[in-house]
Amino acid sequence: MERVKRLAAQLLPGSVGTKPKVALLGAAGGIGQPLALLLKGSPLIGELALYDVANTAGVAADISHISTAVRVKGYTGPQQLGDALQGAAMVVIPAGVPRKPGMTRDDLFNINAGIVATLAEGVARHCPDAWVLVISNPVNSTVPIAAEVFKRAGTYNPAKLFGVTALDVVRAETFIAEILGVDPRDVTVPVVGGHAGVTILPLLSQCKPPLQLEASKAQQLMARIQDAGTEVVQAKAGAGSATLSMAFAAARFADACLRAMAGEGGVVECAFVASALTSLPFFASPVRLGRGGAEAALPIGAMNDLEQRNYDAMLAELAGSIQKGVEFAQRRAVAAAQ
């Protein structure tokens, strides 16, 4: 806690007083509300700007009554997006529609792609130097969309654009801890690739403490981690998707970013970022964070035969999802120019 207090006292870019402004876009949604609650408790945030297209005022009023030092302001509708973003050092984007039973992340594409593109245009206009954390699914496509928007605006900084894949790591830690009978906080396991189905690749062979499973059990565990989102959607039976666990994971990743921004060294978290680790332009891996954003995508490391097979099999699907996002952004740019 003392370390956090020292970091919080340092002056950060885009700060309000001595602490940064964070904008949460989609704050009234299923992920946005619990995420706003968690961010309100951060000692590293000065101002929390809550934005959504409706119902933001009530969420902001509710959150603002919590007894922490974070100042909360609510913004509603496109006409107030610029005010919400102005001066933000970090922008977190959970905006979009949730998955429903029978839907894949890809089914969300046409709706959420447009939402993310619009919000990215706002970021490029009002806070082009901000760290941007994209939660809106499908992340494998929405991150490339945001990148294309920033490129077109001349504001693209690949070190400051992140697809939040922390939920895959959180799930892997939880499920492994159940098997090992340990505290999940004592488990470390990298999850690489992307953030949908088979593109999620937990490297179980690199788990700490070591996890010894026969191949069939390892495959079952890998499949559970990959399909955990569907597990939640089905369990909620039409009442929602993974909102609470996603909010927890996003808050954890945001905290890591804030600590790195404040100058803490050695901060490493998995994220979907611009990467040269593979032939693909974006890839999720452990990333070393620093004051300027993603300093390095760390090597994937040795994989066992099961992991290598899954890695080889998922590259084509991930490439297609990335390209789908790029093509959407390009079509949108052409339409806007006509």
Automatic annotation (TrEMBL):
A GO CC term assigned to this protein in UniProt: chloroplast
Annotated ranges, domain Lactate/malate dehydrogenase N-terminal: 21-163
Bilayer-crossing regions: none
Binding positions for substrate per the UniProt entry: 99, 105, 137, 171
SUPFAM superfamilies reported for this sequence: LDH C-terminal domain-like, NAD(P)-binding Rossmann-fold domains
UniProt xrefs under InterPro entries: L-lactate/malate_DH, Lactate/malate_DH_C, Lactate/malate_DH_N, Lactate_DH/Glyco_Ohase_4_C, Malate_DH_type1, NAD(P)-bd_dom_sf
Binding site for NAD(+): 26-32, 52, 112, 135-137, 246
Enzyme class name: oxidoreductase
Gene Ontology biological process terms in this record: carboxylic acid metabolic process; tricarboxylic acid cycle
Top-level taxon of origin: Eukaryota
E.C. code: 1.1.1.37
Catalysed conversion reaction: (S)-malate + NAD(+) = oxaloacetate + NADH + H(+)
Recorded family membership: Belongs to the LDH/MDH superfamily. MDH type 1 family.
Subunit structure: Homodimer.
PANTHER family reported in the protein's UniProt record: MALATE AND LACTATE DEHYDROGENASE, MALATE DEHYDROGENASE 1, PEROXISOMAL
NCBIfam families listed in its UniProt record: MDH_euk_gproteo (TIGR01772)
Protein name: malate dehydrogenase
Source organism per UniProt: Raphidocelis subcapitata
